[in-house]
Amino acid sequence: MEKLIDKKFLHSLKLKAEQDYIQGRYDESTRSYSQILAERSEDLESRVGLLLADMALDHEEESKALYEYYQILKRQNPEESHKIMLELVESFDGNVSEISAMINAFNSVNVDSVKGILYSDFQHLIENRGGFKRAFEDLMFSTKIIITSKEEFLEFLDSLIEYDFSEIALNYLEATGDALAYDPRFQRLYEKAAKR
User: Fold this and answer.
1) Does the global pTM surpass 0.70?
2) Contacts (Cβ under 8 Å, ≥6 apart) of 157
């Protein structure tokens, strides 16, 4: 029974650490992740969290960009997401252009391993099919739309809501959980989708 309590405690500590990160309390997040790793050094998700929280102390914007990418990566490739992020974060030295290039490189590897269509290609399809609704209906059951940036995600969600796919948009928004809670644009889209 003692291990179950430890497991529950560590799980709640991980949730607290992530929430502290999202709220910008990076010192608290770092402490919580360190405590988890002291008990479970093999916990790759906590190691990524610790590195991101530590990075945010000096490079907040880059850390948040990586965190958002990590959330997407966990949905697309859960088995490899922690290792990919560890490699990205551990090799970061503060050079913004270098981290951008690394994210693009990992995006292209990830895109190649997932059968789908890039959002930029989907936009061309919208033009060829005469609108978002027709293009999305043609693909929604057979092809994944691969979104590689926050801006593409925002645009895609807004289009889903505009063309009466609010329930699908809500599913996407709820799947992001607290990951994007600090961005008011996601809150506005959530409210817009909920009203429809």
Assistant:
1) no
2) 169, 172, 173, 186, 189, 193
